[in-house]
Automatic annotation (TrEMBL):
The lineage of its organism: Eukaryota, Viridiplantae, Streptophyta, Embryophyta, Tracheophyta. It comes from the Eukaryota. This is Sugar phosphate transporter domain-containing protein. The keyword Transmembrane applies. It comes from Vitis rotundifolia. Pfam families: TPT. The chain crosses the membrane at residues 7-27, 39-64, 76-94, 100-122, 134-155, 161-181, 193-212, 224-246, 253-274, 280-300. GO terms for cellular component: membrane. PANTHER family: SOLUTE CARRIER FAMILY 35.
Length: 328
């Protein structure tokens, strides 16, 4: 029996992505939670990630010269990199802060709102049109998340607001990346993305850190274990690279499907690792409804991408394809 090596490699990349993504989320929860490692400073943790990622990217670009930096002007940096970095920093800050207040399982259920947030931001920014079919999907997702939230035993308003705000910040970052970078004709791989965005995000995070966390860190007895934070930052960096590998190997749609699988695994794992995480029947029903909306939304996006690819082909190319099909 012949082994399909490219297929095996694709599944291996997907497995690495799911393991790393789940691992980073659970690791962050463990570090931040007062019940475990007890380092309740999410901005500091995010700054460690950004500082480490930026330093590694600088080493790869400037010292080892693995990739070449793109042609970056002051105008592109100020109009593209700075706003994207600001929303990237915000999404990480708010997302990590949510771990202090709500469970990993409930956070994953709230993340089903990501397509809703992305669609709304795309409509507002003019990159997408308000369509009835997509709107109904978004409505289904929203109803599912509301039902799931209603069934949450340890529902916390502050944690929910932080997580939802982080989701909308991430959605705006994704839309801005598409709008701003594509207009400038820039293509950034993970290394060059981190090279430009991570240091800028670090600077943005420094302001809230100075006013919100620095005073608390000075008066509280915090434990700083180098190996804990180093391994945590290393996992976050590896996750960024794994996302690029999966997208490069399969495409954005596949990573969305893998993301859904990862969410189910995370919800199950979090209840085992963190016993205080309790899942109710209403949680599962609500999340299942939201998931149906997400799957339908992904299906519509795949159809749109295929239609766009077909329309971009020239007429002679289409004729050749039709002839080939007829001859088969």
């Amino acid at each position: 029996m012949m082994i399909n090596k490219p297929l095996v490699l694709t599944y291996l990349y997907l497995l690495i992505y799911i393991v790393l993504s789940s691992g980073v989320i659970l690791y962050n929860k463990w570090v931040l939670s007062p019940k475990y490692f007890n380092f309740p400073f999410p901005i500091t943790l995010t700054m460690i990630h950004m500082g480490f990622s930026g330093a590694v990217a600088f080493f790869l670009v400037r010292v080892l010269k693995v990739v070449s930096p793109v042609k970056m002007t002051l105008e592109i940096y100020s109009t593209c990199v700075i706003p994207i970095s600001a929303f990237f920093a915000s999404s990480l800050w708010f997302g990590n802060t949510a771990y202090l207040h709500i469970s990993v399982a409930f956070i994953q259920m709230l993340k089903a709102l990501m397509p809703v947030a992305t669609f709304l931001m795309a409509v507002i920014c003019g990159t997408d049109k308000l369509r009835c079919d997509v709107f109904l999907n978004m409505l289904l997702v929203s109803v599912g998340v509301v039902i799931s939230s209603y069934g949450e035993i340890h529902f916390n308003v502050i944690g929910t607001v932080y997580q939802v705000t982080g989701i909308f910040a991430e959605a705006l970052r994704l839309v801005l990346t598409q709008v701003l970078l594509q207009k400038k004709g820039l293509t950034l791989n993970p290394i060059t993305s981190l090279y430009y965005i991570a240091p800028c995000s670090f600077v943005f995070l420094f302001v809230p850190w100075y006013f919100l966390e620095k005073p608390q860190m000075e008066i509280s007895q915090i434990q700083f274990n180098f190996w804990i934070f180093f391994s945590n930052a290393l996992c976050a960096l590896a996750l960024n690279f794994s996302i690029f590998l999966v997208i490069g190997r399969t495409g954005a749609v596949t990573i969305r499907v893998a993301g859904v699988l990862k969410d189910w695994i995370l919800i199950a794992l979090s209840t085992v690792i963190f016993p205080e995480s309790t899942i109710t029947g209403l949680n599962i029903i609500g999340y299942a409804i939201a998931l149906c909306g997400v799957v339908m939304y992904n299906y519509l996006k795949v159809k749109d991408v295929r239609a766009a690819q077909l329309s971009s082909e020239s007429l002679p190319e289409r004729i050749v394809k039709v002839n080939l099909i007829n001859n088969c």
